[in-house]
Amino acid sequence: MDKRKTVAEINEKIKKGEAVVLTAEEFKQMVRNEEPVTAEDIDVVTCATCAIMSGTAAILSIPVAERNEFERADKVWLNGIPAFPGPCPNERLGIVDVFVYGTARANHEYGGGHLFREIVEGKQIEVKVKVGTSDRNRIIERRISKEDLQFARMITTRSSFKNYMAFVNPEEGEVRSIFSVRGLKGPYKEISVTGSGEINPLENDPLLKTIGIGTKIMVNGAMGYVIGEGTRSSREKPNLSVIADMHGMDAEFMGGFVTSTGPECITSIAVPIPVISEEVFSNLKIMDEEIKLPIADIHDRIPFAESNYAAVWQDTDLEIHFDADRCVQCDVDVCDVEEYCPTNAFSRSKGIDVYRCFNCGACIFLCPGGAFKGNLGRIKIHDKDKEVPITLRQSNRSKANKLAKKLKNQIVEREFLLTEPCDYLR
Ligand code: SF4
User: Fold this and answer.
1) Distance of CA 193 from the midpoint of ligand 1 (Å)
2) Which atom of ligand 1 is nearest to the CA of 362?
3) pLDDT computed for residue 1 by the predictor
4) Ligand 1 contacts CB of residue 360 (under 6 A)
5) Could you report the per-residue pLDDT of 74-105, keeping only the tens digit for each?
6) Where are the domains of the chain?
7) What distance in angstroms lies between residue 79's CA and the mean position of ligand 1's atoms?
8) Is the Cα torsion angle 386, 391, 395, 398 positive or negative in sign?
9) Is the CB of 345 under 6 A from ligand 1?
10) If you measure from the C-alpha of residue 337 to the centroid of ligand 1, how many angstroms do you get, rounded to a whole number?
């Protein structure tokens, strides 16, 4: 490409319905097929990630009482989950502004991620407010739904991590952690992986030439913005901090995920990468085979070996299926998959609810009858002679592909124009 394309020029093409927009999945397939595609042929590639993102939170403005009913909120719970009132106390207005962590929990089964999804689904939420001392510790209770929330924003403090990690337990026994559903068995009996590989936005723009502060993106299906780099972000392993209005979100791309140490939060992010130069185009050709997957000891999380994302996402099954004919109807009250499916997506009567399923693969190893089908792959750890089976995926590449497609469709339909960063990430 002799001449650089500008974002403004690409937006003009989008407005005229002339822009060539591909999902990362489509683009990688063209590269794998060795199709003669050049930077001039393509205007935008949409990339995405759908994963457990602990650093997710919501800021909600909740009407709980009439004016002058109480002086100040002291503590707040939403469906039993503790929320933090403030920083603006909205004294005497009957409204509380709260901050809720995606990892906050009401109990071992229900956390902030579940709450966020239920808000987006329009479900009724129980709000309990303990009001301040001069009100003699009165408790106010209300039921609200999304329509009552004039302000409901989600932010992430750390998301879309560029090549994350796999975790293994090198010692005897089981280690309970957020990277397992029932404890990670050792020594080297199983491996848990995270990371969307070649479709992750930051893998596709590793020099951050197009992604920066103010970049318009999609968060859980709603329009959002990058607000900066996230916590623990570095030039080598950047991640993003983003914000979006929860009112436009799609529950399919979010929710709770129950691990062996309690609930975590699923969040999905899609980013359009404008093909503004040969350099950007060249970086978009990154493949799973080239992306390192560090393997860490679950005890200290220090990487000691390395694989790559082809072991996770190439020649494996992105989706998990249930074969009812193979269900042996175990002689127990509750089947292990019904009990331990981290998204509560399975019931013996209805099978897998694909809208809720995270394609994590845990059911394949929980079911003694072999009724769940899906090849999750194996990873060779270089100083061991045997390969370790992947038993849990904490990234959902199928849903990430779907979100990238949703973003592509919005661009093609001229509903989503691109922005240039107003500042670059460090
Ligand atoms: S893959 Fe299996 S265990 Fe994982 S969310 Fe789907 S049904 Fe549940």
Assistant:
1) 15
2) 3
3) 53
4) yes
5) 999 999 999 999 888 777 899 999 999 999 99
6) 55-155
7) 24
8) positive
9) yes
10) 8
Nearest CA to ligand 1 atom 2: 363
Question: Using a 6 Å cutoff on CB, does residue 394 contact ligand 1?
Answer: no
How confident is the model over 341-365, as pLDDT tens digits?
A: 999 999 999 999 999 999 999 999 9
Q: pLDDT tens-digit profile of 273-326?
A: 999 999 999 999 999 999 999 999 999 999 999 999 999 999 999 999 999 999
Sign of CA dihedral 354, 356, 362, 363: negative
276 dihedral zone (left: phi>0; alpha: psi -120 to 50; beta): alpha
Tokens representing residue 109 in the block: 């089964």
**Apex CA 395: angle with CA 393 and CA 398, to 5°?**
105
How many whole angstroms separate alpha carbon 236 and alpha carbon 144?
A: 43
Rounded Cα–Cα distance for residues 168 and 184 (Å): 7
Ligand 1 neighbourhood includes 358 CB (under 6 angstroms): yes
- 357 alpha carbon – ligand 1 mean position (Å): 5
Residue 28 neighbours by CB under 8 Å, 6+ apart: 198, 199, 287
**Residue 379 pLDDT class (50, 70, 90 cuts):** very high
Span from the CA of 341 to the centroid of ligand 1 (angstroms): 5
For the CA of 320, the closest atom of ligand 1 is 1
Is the bond preceding 87 in cis, omega lying within 30 degrees of 0? yes
Rounded Cα distance, 169 and 69, in Å: 54
